[in-house]
Each structure stands twice: as C-alpha cells, then as structure tokens.
Amino acid sequence: MKLHTTPPFSFAQTLEFIRRFPGCQTQTAVAAGHVTAAFAAGGRGWAVTIRDGSIELPPGAPRSLVKRAADWIGADDDLGAFYEAAATDRAMQPIVRALHGLHQVRFLGLEDIAVHAVMMQRQPAARVAVMKRRFLEAFGHPVGELFAMPEIDELARLAPAAIGKAIRHPAKAERIAEVVRGVAALGEDFLRTAPYEQAKQALLAVPGVGPFSAAAILLRGLGRTDELPGLAMFEREGRAIYGAAWDEDAIARRYGDQIGYWSFYVKTGAARTVAAGDPNRDST
Q: Which residues, 6 or more positions from 205, have their beta carbon under 8 angstroms from its beta carbon?
C-alpha cells in the first residue's frame, strides 16, 4: 500500500533515527531500505514493513495498521511552521540541515508510551530498556523475534502483581497499572483531538502522571507538539547547540506551538553531533 507523506520527508533519516532509538528496540528491526515493526490488533501481533513510499501488511492484517504505522513515523506531520521558525535561528540551522526531512518518530502507539512514560520515571535508560524487554517478553504478542505491545484495553486488564513479577519492580508495576487504566479511560480519540490544555489536565489527573509524563504521552506518543513541561530538561543539549546564546524564554517565544518539534530536533541533533560514535544515544 502507498505510504502518503507530507514533504519534505526523508525515509533515510527515519531509518537512521529508529536504528539509534532505544525506545523502539525489541519492537522493531531495521534492515537495508526498510523497517519492520510489531503492532498488536485483535489480540495478536502483526509485522508491518515500511519502505520508502509503501507499507506492507501480512495476509489478514487489519487495514487500520496502515494508519498506525504512518502515525508512528509521523508521515503526515507538516514541518513548515517549525522550519520557518528555525530559519532565523542561527544555532539551529546546522541541526535542521543535518536532519532535514526527519519527521518525529513516536513510540509505537498510546499503549507503548503509557508504559514507557512510567518506566522512565527516575530510572536510567539502561534500566528502562531491561524492564521494557521483560515486560514485552511477559505480555507482548510475539511476531517472529519481535514483540508487539498489547493494545491499551488489554494492558488495562493486567494485574499489578503480574507486572511486578515480570519487571521485578513492584512499586513501578503498581504505577504502570494505574497509569494504563487512567489513559485507557480517557481514550486515544480524546487525547488526540481535545484542546491541548484540556488533554494535558486530564492526564495530570491520572495518578502517576506528572507534567513530564503528560508531555511525553502527548508529544512522543501522539505527536502533539504544543508544549513542553519546561526547557530546563533540554539545557545540556541546548547549551551544546546554542552555547552562550542559550535563552529558554527566547526559544519558547520563537517556536511557540512547535516547541515539541524543536525538542525532538535538539535531542536528536545533539545526540548525533555531540556524542558521535555512540549508536545508542538518541533520546526519547
């Protein structure tokens, strides 16, 4: 099936990001010219392969997976407003040139980011990777060597004790169960379409969801770029790019409701330029 994208779109940049992105590992596999991702639908896993210009579904797979795969790689994102804001930002110009055409690769659905957002709270990336692998091996739907994260309603039925046994972290298991149930109750349609502030406040009312997790769910799960919980968390990467010109207020004013895309490019660009040589430094 044809993959519809909003230009500029670079599939090569997409593959490079996925290859370096720890948050996608265990659920995806990149090979020459394509990526295969595991998605769950109807109580089982499906392997969806994306090439430059096409999406391939296995026999019997629901067509809804085409949209899910396209959403995952941000195929329909319009980079125009972000690139326009960056055009007069001298510090960002090298990053934009290096990553030109990169659309935001999300986590693999709302269910994926709901689990990951809890796991990454006060945990180093290496520890998160171990917990997520154990979680997927225990509850994911196997697709060859990959695992598909169960759909959100299926996750909401998991018992905290079972999660704790799988990830070996009972306290975090309780929090995962709370957050997944809360997110499932809100529903993906509401979180995608409600005014941003309304969606954010609804997430903040879920036990276990703070400002960082709410922003992660909306941005890295659903591609909503409107806000960040604060620019302080990007200071290390930001100073590496902006140097003495680093000014959080000025950056927030310049990028407005594209600040989420700014953060994606800053994290990705800093990881590739400052930490060159480390293939696993692209951040969430």
A: 182
Distance, CA of 176 to CA of 181 (rounded, Å): 8
| Pairing between β-strand 44-51 and β-strand 34-41 as defined by DSSP bridges | antiparallel
Q: Give the pair of three-digit tokens for residue 227.
A: 């806000």
Q: What DSSP string runs through 234-257?
A: GHHHHHHHHGGG--HHHHHHHHGG
Give me the pLDDT at residue 22, please: 85
**pLDDT (0 to 100) of residue 284:** 42
Residue type at position 227? E
Q: What does DSSP assign to residue 92?
A: T
HSE-up of 113 (CA within 13 Å, CB side)?
A: 25
Q: What gap in Å lies between CA 124 and CA 219, rounded to an integer?
A: 21
Q: At residue 155, does pLDDT exceed 50?
A: yes
Taking CA atoms, 281 is separated from 103, 267, 277, 284, in Å, by 18, 9, 9, 10
Question: What are the φ and ψ backbone dihedral angles of 91, each rounded to 5 degrees?
Answer: -65, -30
Q: Which residue shows structure tokens 């700014």? A: 262
Q: Each residue of 143-157: b (16+ CB within 10 Å) or e?
A: beebbbbbbbebbbe
Please list, in sequence order, all residues whose beta carbon lies within 8 angstroms of the beta carbon of residue 195, skipping any fewer than 6 positions away. Answer: none
pLDDT of residue 278: 40
Pairing of strands 141-143, 54-56: unpaired
pLDDT at position 24 is 87
71-123 pLDDT tens trace = 999 999 999 999 999 999 999 999 999 999 999 999 999 999 999 999 999 88
Q: What is the DSSP letter of 221?
A: I
| 231, 238 contact by CB (below 8 A) | yes
- Report the distance separating Cα 237 and Cα 274, nearest Å: 8
**Domains in the chain and their CATH numbers?**
110-221 (1.10.340.30)
